[in-house]
Write a structure and sequence with these properties.
The chain is mostly beta strands. 8% of the residues lie in helices and 41% in strands. Strands 16-17-20-21-26-25 form a 6-stranded mixed β-sheet, with no helix packed on it. It has a 5-stranded antiparallel β-sheet with strand order 1-7-6-3-36, with no helix packed on it. The chain is globular and about 65 Å long. It starts with 26 loop residues before the first strand and ends with a strand. Its cofactor is Fe(2+). This is Retinal Mueller cells isomerohydrolase. Keywords: Iron, Metal-binding.
Length: 533
């Protein structure tokens, strides 16, 4: 079972939410075990690294200033390096020694040094949206971009970790922001989703397409375009979107009941002390809606798929099979917003308090939903799913909507299988067998999990008082099977006196340890990342 029986009374997990310094140069790691000769290149990850500016604290886990981490692997040797990304949010905070730009859960206050007139003026310039790109890093063309979920992405140098430039996607695309979880095709084409103002000022969601690297070496972002538009269930309240699904021929968009109240966002911003978190609300009536669109050409498919309420951050994978689309998700039951439980004050509490809070929070579950592509009105009340290997159902209702019930792939009380990864290069959008994830024990990351989505068999790696990060799958060069390869994760052991953090390399087949590369610095929490060549 992928359930953690570990307890954390020592509270070591609090240390992954503490500020650290950047490094002047890469530091060597102490390797134990034997790193496979074929495993070279860099592991790049981002996350928060500065949790306060002077005596002003950040309040939410997604507010800390973006820090980029790199483990370099070469000839069996490993180095570790990290630098703060020089975003406007960071540079201005450093210059003014205060929080200048409002972050996800922390409001910036007006400059106390300004007089009433200049403050009034600033007020009319509107919202300064954060560029604090702490969530993910991904390639576009030949370049690498760190991102959050706003319209700003930041180009970084994957070798030196230097910040190159801030890019405003609004200059190229009709979107208010895009997710930190784009999809990439083998040729380098990038797809993403973001909300926008559609027809007659009502809200919609756009799938955008950024072409692959250009022969003339021009920037692919300049050639981005909107491919297809999904309607919004509510005119002025888009749902919060963190990721989406893509098969060979379709896009899957799951519209959850966690809503952004745009009117509140636009009006209360000028009022002192409003932040992004204040603008979320839950619709306790709508449940969850699934939407489909074709990829080529991009066209919305007007089937009304409905199911009960859940939060969704991460799609695992989805694929087409015999006239159905199979959608595997990391869900959290109900409409209460999970981010309400991710304030730093919550995650830094003592273990007993952390456990109590997780009791009240939405419960995690890995689910498989199956959407029929061929829908006939006359089959009311009958399960339309005929795939032999799943218990997921889809039933036509009298109003023409299709009610979905999932197959549960993994469920444990307050034990989440989250930050999912697959053999993406070979199996994204295709029928697959294995998912890898970070196990959250009452929101505390304390194990690495593997799930066979066909048999529901699970494997885990864990050590007492060790806190891993999202495991990235790297396929071995002579791979025959889907899970031939390794998993890379940054693990922190705050309780030890020497070398408290390490890069962990696991055999992806059975989660046994191959090697670890330990460093003599603490490493704070990281969210997402990539393995680059």
């Amino acid at each position: 079972m992928s359930i953690s029986d570990l307890e954390h009374p020592a509270g070591g997990y609090k240390k992954i939410f503490e500020s650290c310094d950047e490094l002047a140069e890469p530091i060597p790691a102490h390797v134990s075990g034997k790193i496979p000769a074929w495993l070279t290149g860099s592991l790049l990850r981002v996350g928060p690294g500065l949790f306060e500016i002077g005596d002003e604290p950040f309040y939410h886990i997604f507010d800390g200033q973006a820090l980029i981490h790199k483990f370099d692997l070469k000839d069996g040797h490993v180095t570790y390096y990290r630098r703060f990304i020089r975003t406007d949010a960071y540079v201005r905070a450093m210059t003014e020694k205060r929080i200048v730009i409002t972050e996800f859960g922390t409001a910036a206050y007006p400059d106390p040094c300004k007089n009433i007139f200049s403050r009034f003026f600033t007020y009319f310039q509107g919202i300064e949206v954060t560029d604090n790109c702490l969530v993910n890093i991904y390639p576009i063309g030949e370049d690498f971009y760190a991102c959050t979920e706003t319209n700003y992405i930041t180009k970084v140098d994957p070798d030196t970790l230097e910040t190159i430039k801030k890019v405003d996607l609004c200059n190229y695309l009709s979107v208010n922001g895009v997710t930190a979880h784009p999809h990439t095709e083998p040729d380098g084409t990038v797809y993403n989703i973001g909300n926008c103002f559609g027809k007659n000022m009502s809200l919609a969601y756009n799938i955008v397409k950024i072409p692959p690297p250009q022969d003339d070496k021009s920037d692919p972002i300049e050639k981005s375009k909107v491919l297809v538009q999904f309607p919004s269930s509510e005119r002025f309240k888009p749902s919060y979107v963190h990721s989406f699904g893509m098969t060979e021929n379709y896009f899957v968009f799951v519209e959850t009941p966690v809503k952004i109240n745009l009117l509140k966002f636009l009006t209360s911003w000028s009022i002192r002390g409003t932040n992004y978190m204040d603008c979320f609300e839950s619709n306790d009536k709508m449940g969850t809606w699934f939407h489909l669109a074709t990829k080529n050409p991009g066209e919305y498919i007007d089937h009304k798929f409905r199911t009960s309420a859940f939060n969704l951050f991460h799609h695992i994978n989805c694929y087409e099979d015999q006239g159905f689309i199979v959608v595997d998700l990391c869900t959290w039951k109900g409409h209460d917003f999970v981010y309400n439980y991710l304030y730093l004050a919550n995650v830094r509490q003592n273990w007993d308090e952390v456990k109590k809070a997780a009791m009240r929070a939405p419960q995690p579950e890995v689910r498989r939903y199956v959407l029929p592509l061929d829908i006939h009105r006359e089959e009311q009340g009958k399960n339309l799913v005929s795939l032999p290997y799943t218990t997921a159902t889809a039933v036509m209702c009298s109003d023409g909507s299709v009610w979905l019930e999932p197959e549960v792939l993994f469920s444990g009380p307050r034990q989440a299988f989250e930050f999912p990864q697959i053999n993406y290069k070979k199996y994204c959008g295709k029928n697959y067998t294995f998912a890898y994830g970070l196990g959250l024990n009452h929101f505390v990351p304390d194990r690495i999990c593997k799930l066979n989505v066909k048999s529901k068999e699970t494997w885990i790696w864990q050590e007492p008082d060790a806190y891993p990060s999202e495991p990235l799958f790297v396929q071995s060069p002579d791979a025959k099977d889907e899970d031939d390869g390794v998993l890379l994760s940054i693990v922190v052991k705050p309780g030890v006196t020497q070398r408290p953090a390490f890069l962990l390399i696991l055999n992806a087949t059975d989660l046994t340890e191959i090697a670890r590369a330990e460093v003599d610095v603490m490493i704070p929490v990281t969210l997402h990342g990539i393995k680059s060549q």
